[in-house]
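Task: sequence design from structure.
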């Protein structure tokens, strides 16, 4: 099975993905949402195309929040989500009569990244990250975090406010979902963040671990110290729960009404059957047997 190239796939999402499996028949599966979950879902879509070439599977990347808006409005069958559904979104689903199945498809560790020319910082504490990213933060230079570090401005990169990664990071690090300084370069496209960090020696950013793996020759991964010593994300530390507090589950949400369409049901069944091996291929951690059993029960 070929290695999935996350960067090229994401950049071509709006052109190539819209015609994935265009072989006639008029059957389609519409998916949108998290850029973090995108690599897994697109890998599944490409494999699904081999067995059901007449089904058109489109995968968008408008962020978790953007995906849920379309999901509630009924314009997509499946929402990729890098966080659990919010109470406010659940209420809107109830109001709109949208029933759904929540399926956990992988585990991810959020990666804290710097430029590879950064030779002064190997890890940051959770307190340092909080001080750096909190609203109205006074941290401007590296030396504000540690007086031994350069007195150079930190150029910050991170996901936009519609991203589930943004929601998760702010809650885990700052302590409140959505609480963040605003003076940073933001994008829903993680490849934009990769490019920005790669180009600036004094940069720092965060995004899903799979995007670091895709670009590890261009970036430097930092450890995160929650008080028990610095730990970097890996399959072992994410699954084992030692990479705290930046490990998280990833989801797809499927409209119950959409499962009445044969092509959607076939695609979701295929996702549950084949997703585990593809999850590892794109750099995430597969779910446990217990979670897989819970997914099967949810689909019933």
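Answer:
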């Amino acid at each position: 099975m070929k290695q999935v190239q996350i960067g090229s796939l994401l950049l071509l999402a709006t052109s190539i993905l819209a015609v994935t499996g265009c072989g006639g028949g008029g059957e389609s599966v519409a998916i949108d949402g998290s850029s973090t979950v995108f690599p897994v879902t697109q890998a599944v879509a490409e494999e699904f195309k081999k067995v059901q070439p007449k089904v058109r599977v489109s995968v968008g990347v408008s962020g978790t929040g953007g995906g849920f808006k379309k999901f509630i409005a009924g314009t997509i069958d499946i929402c990729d989500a890098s966080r659990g559904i919010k109470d406010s979104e659940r209420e809107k689903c109830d109001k709109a009569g949208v029933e759904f199945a929540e399926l956990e498809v992988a585990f991810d560790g959020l990666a804290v990244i710097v430029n590879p020319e950064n030779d002064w910082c190997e890890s940051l504490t959770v307190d340092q990250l909080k001080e750096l990213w909190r609203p109205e933060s006074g941290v401007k230079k590296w030396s504000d975090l540690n007086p031994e570090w350069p007195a150079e401005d930190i150029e910050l990169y991170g996901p936009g406010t519609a991203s589930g990664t943004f929601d998760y990071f702010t809650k885990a690090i700052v302590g409140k979902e959505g609480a963040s300084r605003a003076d940073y370069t933001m994008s829903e496209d993680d490849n934009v963040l990769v490019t920005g960090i790669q180009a600036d020696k004094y940069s720092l950013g965060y995004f899903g671990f799979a995007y670091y793996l895709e670009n590890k020759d261009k970036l430097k991964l930092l450890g995160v110290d929650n008080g028990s010593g610095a730990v970097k994300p890996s399959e072992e530390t994410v699954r084992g729960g030692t990479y705290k507090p930046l490990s998280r589950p990833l989801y797809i949400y499927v409209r119950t009404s959409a499962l009445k369409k044969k092509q959607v049901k076939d695609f979701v069944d295929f996702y549950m059957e084949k997703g585990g091996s593809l999850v590892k291929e794109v750099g995430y951690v597969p779910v446990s047997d217990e979670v897989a059993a819970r997914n099967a029960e949810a689909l019933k």
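The mean pLDDT is 89.
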